[in-house]
């Protein structure tokens, strides 16, 4: 007999989840509780769970969304602080894994190298590398669920800075924070104005000699309370589950109301934000120079600062903001275009992420490579022309993970429908091939704009129009049927057919 005949068959799973972060763990819960007969595993390339919350180690790392909406619908957030730091979020995720008995489902050091779909077999073949040993293995699965986030884990974005090699101090990116970096008593320059920068500045300012945030363009920044007194009172009165559910509904409504107000009345929103900023800053502070972006509120995500910690650092003099462009790095720090030199011992390039859809995994369908910009997002969770592939991606205008629960519920209902009717595959296909499309994420942030031509598209109508609101997705993903005239189901060896919505 040949060696191939003696080779053991690859392990087969009903669902393969890639990524053991907040989305992958959530998907594991819904499969465990909703479809207990389905076999699945969660592959994680790194050595531990948590995704973003284990990867980033910079000072002050925290969520900029409240955990009543950033957390899971099925698991109450019990901490008194609703704006939580990474260790608190990691503890919450580890508890979720234990409660759902997912420890045995997670396979660490498993990096996916590629995934190939066969219509003849109605299954994915997934190539995997063990990052701890270099060993390569193969799995097959009925469904491939991408839950690895939206950015590159191995490298953040750093633009070219003239003269970088001349600087005599340390240069670090928040995504690769050295464990032994000691900033106490040091002069620190933080380059950037986004959520990471406004988190780093007050955290480092507590022990640094001086922290200067150098921004090319201001961001909208708003103070938020670290603790939610209404949510905590509701939990005290009604218990964890009912109190959490009401707090979650309250905060979902508040997020939507703030976003809608900013989009409908941008001038009024700008005036309100400026008024709040002015009250937080020292008298006579140049608010318009450092806190007045050239774009409207929510053209990019608003930055939240818990208990106004950034403003406190500015008031007490431990931190400052400079709005200018960097001309070059020098031996001692950075030289600005205005001619001012800011000396530093440490420069932090909080300059953003590198967006990467589907974790950069090469995907083929029947031997043909899938080119993501040629695909259209279906219900914000599948791709046109790609069978049995789902992905988790959240909102840009509210808590990122709010959509995860709805998406996973819909995914489980879809799998149940396929099992009931004996289908092996389903593939979204637009009924109108000439349907107009536009970028998948209509968002002005630099990290999105740099990658927009590498991402899928969205259409101009449902189910190809990507929802941006939780309420809309409740209707689309929780209340609506999983069948659709533009979702084609098939059995192995049988003719593909369209499902009639019912």
Automatic annotation (TrEMBL):
Sorted UniProt keywords: FAD, Flavoprotein, Monooxygenase, NADP, Oxidoreductase
Cited Gene3D superfamilies: FAD/NAD(P)-binding domain
Name of the protein described by the UniProt record: Cation diffusion facilitator CzcD-associated flavoprotein CzcO
UniProt superkingdom: Bacteria
Named cofactor requirement(s): FAD
PANTHER family reported in the protein's UniProt record: MONOOXYGENASE, PUTATIVE (AFU_ORTHOLOGUE AFUA_8G02570)-RELATED
Family annotation (Pfam families): FMO-like, NAD_binding_8
Species assigned in the record: Streptomyces murinus
Family per record: Belongs to the FAD-binding monooxygenase family.
GO molecular-function term, one example from the UniProt record: flavin adenine dinucleotide binding
Statement: the UniProt record of this protein carries the keyword Transcription regulation: no
């Amino acid at each position: 007999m040949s060696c191939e005949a003696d080779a053991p068959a690859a392990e087969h799973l009903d669902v393969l989840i890639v990524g053991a972060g907040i989305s992958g763990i959530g998907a594991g819960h819904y499969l465990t509780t909703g479809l207990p007969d389905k076999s699945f595993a969660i592959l994680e390339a790194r050595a531990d769970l948590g995704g973003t919350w284990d990867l980033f180690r910079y000072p002050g790392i925290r969520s900029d969304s409240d955990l009543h909406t950033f957390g899971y619908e099925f698991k109450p957030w019990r901490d008194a602080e609703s704006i939580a730091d990474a260790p608190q979020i990691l503890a919450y995720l580890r508890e979720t894994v234990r409660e759902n008995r997912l420890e045995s489902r997670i396979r660490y050091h498993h990096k996916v190298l590629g995934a190939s779909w066969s219509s003849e077999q109605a299954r994915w073949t997934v190539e995997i590398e063990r990052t701890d040993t270099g060993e390569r293995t193969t799995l097959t699965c009925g469904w491939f669920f991408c839950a690895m986030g939206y950015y590159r884990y191995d490298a953040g974005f750093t633009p070219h800075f003239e003269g970088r090699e001349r600087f005599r101090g340390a240069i670090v990116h928040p995504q690769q924070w050295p464990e032994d970096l000691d900033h106490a008593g040091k002069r620190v320059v933080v380059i950037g104005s986004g959520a990471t920068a406004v988190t780093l500045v007050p955290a480092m300012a507590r022990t640094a000699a001086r922290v200067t945030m150098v921004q090319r363009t201001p961001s909208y920044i708003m103070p938020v309370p670290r603790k939610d007194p209404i949510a905590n009172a509701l939990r005290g009165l009604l218990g964890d589950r009912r109190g959490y559910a009401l707090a979650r509904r309250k905060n979902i409504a508040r997020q939507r109301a703030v976003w809608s107000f900013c989009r409908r009345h941008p001038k009024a929103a700008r005036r309100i934000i400026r008024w709040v900023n002015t009250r937080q800053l020292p008298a006579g502070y140049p608010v318009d120079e450092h806190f007045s972006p050239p774009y409207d509120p929510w053209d990019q995500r608003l930055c939240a600062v818990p208990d106004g910690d950034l403003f406190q650092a500015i008031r007490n003099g431990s931190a400052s903001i400079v709005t200018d462009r960097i001309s070059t790095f020098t031996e001692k720090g950075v030289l600005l275009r205005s001619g001012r030199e800011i000396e530093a011992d440490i420069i932090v390039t909080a300059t953003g992420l590198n967006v990467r859809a589907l974790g950069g995994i090469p995907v083929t369908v029947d031997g043909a490579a899938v080119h993501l910009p040629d695909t259209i997002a279906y219900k914000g969770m599948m791709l046109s022309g790609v069978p049995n592939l789902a992905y988790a991606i959240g909102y840009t205008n509210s808590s990122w993970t709010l959509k995860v629960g709805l998406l996973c519920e819909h995914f489980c209902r879809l799998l149940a429908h396929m099992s009931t009717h004996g289908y092996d595959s389903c593939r979204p296909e637009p009924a109108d091939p000439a349907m107009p499309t536009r970028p998948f994420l209509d968002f002005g942030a630099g990290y999105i704009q740099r990658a927009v031509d590498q991402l899928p598209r969205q259409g101009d109508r449902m189910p190809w129009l990507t929802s941006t609101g939780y309420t809309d997705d409740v209707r689309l993903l929780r209340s609506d049927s999983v069948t659709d005239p533009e979702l084609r189901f098939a059995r192995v060896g049988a003719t593909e057919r369209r499902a009639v919505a019912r």
